[in-house]
Specification:
Blueprint (H helix, E strand, L loop, with lengths): L23 H7 L3 H9 L16 H7 L3 H9 L6 H7 L2 H8 L20 H9 L14 H6 L6 H9 L6 H7 L2 H10 L7 H9 L3 H9 L16 H8 L2 H9 L15 H12 L3 H17 L1
Helix pairs in contact: 1-2, 1-3, 3-4, 3-5, 6-7, 10-12, 12-13, 12-14, 14-15, 14-16, 16-17
């Protein structure tokens, strides 16, 4: 295709799997296809990307967000620009300070707060000193504390630092960071909060197996369901992640195999099978095989 039409390499179009209008390089980075990334760059793809129709996310930002270490290294080797978002995600406090000496750049990716991209406590403090808002949600409604909680274990000290600065956090934020101490405090105030679907969904999506087990013992539902997006269940989320231990835990706790999500009208096994194609996660093959076996056993 590129031989026939070289300009396709920097074309912009609808995302093949979800929203936004990325370029081929964005999609290749997201899905972890290193040979495809190399091919596109060799054929003239802009290493920095044209990002204004993809919420301001550069290919380098995507590589770091998806933990694509090899792709990140290749993009930097080929001269990818490191702006404030990239410097924050790299945890490069020195470069962050240098950039902030000229003030906060605009616009912010996702149209939220730069604090959502911080990866160190000094970076958070530097951003607040530069008048970045620690409570500014992005256009998806995600607050910085929630965005940082999605870093999992790495987000725990960042969430706690924002809390010390007076930014409120939710039980779901604690579940995403695996912060059992904070969840126990929540339970002491109101045990019903531990039973909320959003808390179980957060633990499952963040792959905190023992925390999910703890929540189940405290009344959490193995059939917890997302309040928004595609209204998928915890089992959908674990299946998409290729997280067989979590899938097994939920199934053994009574998770239903046949619940359909609201957007794609698919059961959890469908999510596992689709994830193999979309994310290249071969662990999802084992999940799909396990779910088929459980379904057959229950039918027989």
């Amino acid at each position: 295709m590129l031989d026939a039409n070289p300009s396709l390499v920097n074309g912009i179009g609808a995302h093949p799997f979800w929203g936004g209008r990325p370029q081929p390089l964005h999609v290749a980075v997201e899905t972890g296809r290193e040979p495809m990334v190399a091919l596109l760059l060799d054929r003239g793809a802009d290493v920095d990307g044209v990002n204004d129709q993809y919420d301001g996310w550069s290919p380098l930002m995507l590589a770091m967000n998806r933990d694509r270490a090899g792709i990140r290294q290749e993009l930097l080797r080929r001269g990818a620009r490191v702006g404030l978002a990239e410097a924050l995600m790299m945890g490069d406090d020195s470069l962050v300070a240098t950039i902030l000496a000229s003030g906060l750049p605009h616009p912010v990716p996702n149209l939220g707060s730069w604090i959502a991209f911080a990866r160190t406590i000094p970076a958070i403090d530097a951003l607040i000193a530069a008048e970045a808002r620690p409570d500014q949600p992005d256009h998806w409604g995600t607050r910085p504390v929630e965005a940082l909680s999605k870093l999992g274990d790495a987000g725990k000290p960042l969430v706690r630092h924002l809390m010390a600065l007076g930014v409120p956090a939710t039980p779901a934020d604690f579940a995403r960071t695996g912060d059992l101490d904070e969840l126990e405090r929540v339970g002491q105030r109101d045990r019903n909060l531990l039973k909320e679907d959003g808390v179980m969904m957060a633990a499952v999506s963040s792959r905190h197996l023992e925390l999910a087990r703890w929540l189940l013992k405290h009344g959490g539902s193995p059939n917890a369901r997302a309040a928004d997006q595609s209204r998928h269940t915890a089992l959908h989320s674990a299946a998409w992640n290729g997280d067989l231990p979590m899938v097994t835990l939920l199934v053994e706790a009574g998770a239903r195999l046949d619940t359909l999500d609201d957007e794609y009208n698919a059961p959890p096994i469908g999510w596992a099978e689709t994830a193999v194609e979309v994310t290249g996660n071969e662990a999802c093959v084992d999940v799909a095989r396990y779910l088929r076996r459980v379904k057959a056993d229950r039918a027989g």
